[in-house]
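DM from R.C. (forwarded with permission)

"hey, sorry to bug you on a friday — could you get me a structure for this? deadline for the figure draft is monday and I only need the backbone to look sensible"
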Amino acid sequence: MQTSTPCRKAEITRKTAETDIALTLNLDGKGESSIDSGCGFLDHMLTLFAKHGSFDLSLTCKGDTYVDDHHTVEDIGIVLGQAFAKALCDKRGISRYGSMILPMDESLILSAVDLSGRSYLGFALDIPTSRVGTFDTELVEEFWLAFTRNAQCTLHLRKATGTNSHHIIEGAFKAAARALRQAVAIDTARPDDLPSTKGVL
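My reply, with the result:
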């Protein structure tokens, strides 16, 4: 269910047999967050995502983590993507594109985003280990796939260098946040313009 909120902000709730999620997002925030996903590693990633994107983000999730983290991670990706789509309204005035090349110690991560209305994930992180702690690293791709499908954006995440799985994943979340921060920003020179020759995004 989606509740009515002004543009640039969104509240989303989603309840299934596998997860019960409540999320609020402010695109014009200060990077403040309150995250309780039930998955400690994802909490860490979303906290730094909010900080580096300057998004205010609140999230609670009760999921079937006794099975594994898959449903929780994927469904949070879905809800976060829905929140971005809702908060952007008709996308009038946004910069639309954003990119970042971000170093994280030995890792170097490229992220590029287009808030195009078309969902595509170009995922080339090549994470060397199957787990970071108890977190299944293949879920990183599942998260961003769910996000792009529901935010209706094109997102590329690519590793240039990197050998430490934690650094690679953290670099990807930070780079994506920084790219999204650019893309959602209002173009002050054209605040009423829709950045597309088609007239729709």
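R.C.: lifesaver. The radius of gyration is 16 Å.
me: no worries. The CA atoms of residues 18 and 166 lie 27 Å apart.
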